[in-house]
Fold these 3 entries.
Entry 1:
Amino acid sequence: MLDVVVVGAGPNGLTAAVELARRGFSVAVFEARSTVGGGARTEELTLPGFRHDPCSAAHPLAINSPAFRALPLERYGLEWLHAELPMAHPFPDGSAAVLARTVGETAASFGPRDAGAYRRLVEPFLPKWDTLARDFMSLPLTALPRDPVTLARFGLAGLPPSTLLMRRFRDEPAKALFSGLVAHVMAPLGGFATSAIGLVFALAAHARGWPLARGGSQSLSDALAAYLRDLGGSVHTDYEVKRLDDLPPARAYVFDTSPTALARIAGFGNHYAGYRYGPGVFKVDYALDGPVPWTAKEARAAGTVQVGASSAEIGSALRAASREGRAPDRPFLITVQPSVVDPSRAPAGKHVFWAYGHVPHGWTGDLTDAIERQLERFAPGFRDRVLARATAGPPELAARNANYIGGDIASGAVSGLQLLLRPRPTLFPYRTPHPAVFICSSATPPGPGVHGMSGHNAAKAVWKRLRRI
């Protein structure tokens, strides 16, 4: 009999498996798709030789993750690449705000009226970022924080809505960039604790950047899987699990799945019926015959580019998708241009690029034209660079990754108390009605993103149980 069976080979499932294998437990991972990776995959979606990331591409949370930093993933091929700028936020007039590695360069891009306010916001937390990140991404409700004073100060700054925090700023560059940071997890700008989301992304950039993995996000997943095998674990792909009886006997089962799928497989009935899913996204992967012709020079040097003319425009796009049930006319776009820093992702002289905008949950329309009209505002001539495109709305995203129900790449609404208490309001989020079954997906704290911390935290819960039996 195995000690642990993990269902789902996304970053959280693989991290949970690695953590348990490192403690000497026998572990097997079962994945429905033919490759591991979940939201951290790389595939040829458009033309031969163009390597795209179907979901996550830039990794500020991964490089700052306490779980990943404790693992020898570089030994298994993971290499982080940094663009000149982690992120840029261009404006239609050709100017741009930037999220740079240094606080000073970032503050300067906001203009003299907001530079000081930004420094005062982030500089107190940077010297203690590693401890703060561990406290923030671990189990703040059940574990004693390592630095309770700093965590409390962060809470005072982060728990209010981002709309309140942005009153510190007077001009649009700072407001728009910070609004865009909050939108990375598809949270409404006026939501509870949305200030914390923006702060985490900003601090992550100043601490270690927003890197991309050489060769694509698949490199991170492959490194986790290779390390697991070296520890004696096994990975089984093309293995769909429909019920618990499909799995070999084990002392514990860990699910890197949606709560909905877990309830269906394990027979938990309506246990997770109250779990809410958020808006979806519409994503386009592009093969280009040259770099994106951004008007703002800063955008040409950035790995990630946020596209939204103002904080008001960004807020309007989020409201349309999350509350008004319609696709925005001018979507806020998150875009990544991997080949700016990694030429191996495309044939010589060519580029890969992706962009996504927010749409209602389960939306079945086509946002391609709206996305490209928005890009043309900031990069005139963009359409002329397109060699091929691969589009994916909510139905296609859910087909690629079963955790993306309704196209929700956050695996559950990141709003209200569900931002912190997920998938149920409990102090023990990784436990389920069955004492031997656990959940470790992004539907558990600390939530969405490629960081492995949900798997890391769930592995602790599994380990504590296995010690007792």
Note: The radius of gyration is 21 Å.
Entry 2:
Amino acid sequence: MGSSSAQTEIPKMTKLEPKVAVVVFLLKGRKVLLGRRRSAVGRSTFALPGGNLEFGESFEECAAREVKEETGLEIQKTELLTVTNNLFLEQPKPLHYVTIFMRSVQADDDEVPQNMEPEKCDGWDWYEWEDLPQPLFWPLEKMVNSGFNPFPT
């Protein structure tokens, strides 16, 4: 997908480097799993499970690890959907993330998501794609507003 940045000049500081995040559209029927963020960046917004890519990890490995760490769920049929370039210039410290969006399903439909990291998230719920909660975390909001659809056609 495309590049995203605010129309603000990037402050001159010590060397800032982009990070890579992998986030997962975990699908169940026409629903997607979202959690309300507690971190400073995007506090109280709804976001997909995911996190930072670790050295040597594939996108699929990162997706599986992050979903398991955050929700306790095992995933399968994971595939790359798109990539976005996100600048967070209004934060206490500017952030630049290349975000890898993956699509996946649960390995066991009977498993229920658990809040494994309550310091980072208020909890996980399934939401109908046509009736997503607000506010959405900015990178996800941009995807939704662009007409992006994570469901297979």
Note: The helical segments are 59-71, 138-145.
Entry 3:
Amino acid sequence: MIKQASSFGRNGVQDYVFTRATAVIIVLYVLWIVGFMLFKSDGSFIQWKSFFESNFNKVFTIITLISILIHAWIGLWQVFTDYVKNTLLRAILQFFVVTILLIYVIYGFFILWGA
């Protein structure tokens, strides 16, 4: 019987697909921001503020933040399972990484949609 090494029933193919899909989203977001900086922005605070007041940019930013969370989690999970052999230490590290990543996304929501 083959036992899956990853949690939640994931497998290597799903990790591969998620990693590549999130990388594409991140690259598209970087190109979007660089394009804005090169062609639309004079660098003023007012232009940046109006750029991020658009619902499209807010949603695109949140999708990118979530993609970064998924991308980072898969990468760090693989590093932890490959190099941290102590199960308790690995669980503690994974808990802290998940906590920090969730705080990043919550903070991103607060910045974009907050008062």
Note: The helical segments are 12-39, 45-53, 55-83, 87-113.
